[in-house]
Design goal:
Chain lengths: 112, 114
């Protein structure tokens, strides 16, 4: 069956360091992969999309890589700030019909 | 900017009550979705709709129904609320024309069933 895995343990890093979050998937052949940010008690917010033919995508301090051979995406936040503290979800299209399946998310805490 | 609104941020109901959760989007999106989110389980799809009066079951439809009479509005109905339906409910919308399935979420409704 299709599965998306994100590290369920929170990631704690110091301000200014680069945070790297991992999304692994099995039994998918996605045309693209998306990353969302979710703050406590709020709905997820779309951040970035990367297509299968793109190795890397950047947006300001964010960078996403996509390795379809390893079936893995890495999400990097450079020069991290306390305001980056949130849960980050990856999502893949599933079953057609514009549906997405979301990973359970990884909580990032950036400390001063 | 896409705006998705949900009728309540917090809701407390009693077991057996009929509960209506409403979602409205202002970007003329064809697709609308209802999820519930629980710790450790992530977002789980309850129902989705491709168009007015169209609906399809998601992964966990039991105990829920939906209604979409107008394009901008998608309602989730708990026919007889139970304590195991205590959860965060999230509505989302997307536009097929974007070809990327990017979803825009509302702020969520925290439902507690006593």
């Amino acid at each position: 069956s299709q599965k998306i895995e994100q590290n369920s343990e929170a990631l704690n890093i110091q301000e200014g360091k680069t945070a790297t979050l991992t999304c692994n998937y099995t039994n998918y052949s996605p045309a693209y992969l998306q990353w969302y940010r979710q703050d406590p008690g709020r709905g997820p917010v779309f951040l970035l999309l990367i297509r299968e033919n793109e190795k890397e995508k950047r947006k300001e301090r964010l960078k996403v890589t996509f390795d379809t051979t390893l079936k893995q995406s890495l999400f990097h936040i450079t020069a991290s700030q306390p305001a980056d503290s949130a849960t980050y979800l990856c999502a893949l299209a599933s079953g057609g019909g514009n549906k997405l399946t979301f990973g359970t998310g990884t909580q990032l805490k950036v400390e001063l | 900017d896409v705006k998705v609104t949900q009728s309540s941020r917090y809701l407390v109901k009693r077991t057996g009550e009929k509960v209506f959760l409403e979602c409205v989007q202002d970007m003329d999106h064809e697709n609308m979705f209802w999820y519930r989110q629980d710790p450790g389980l992530g977002l789980r799809l309850i129902y989705f709709s491709y168009d007015v009066k169209m609906k399809e079951k998601g992964d966990i439809p039991e105990g829920y129904s939906v209604s979409r009479e107008k394009k901008e509005r998608f309602s989730l109905i708990l026919e007889s609320a139970s304590t195991n339906q205590t959860s965060m409910y999230l509505c989302a919308s997307s536009a097929p024309v974007e070809l990327t399935d990017t979803q825009y979420f509302g702020p969520g409704t925290r439902l507690t069933v006593l």
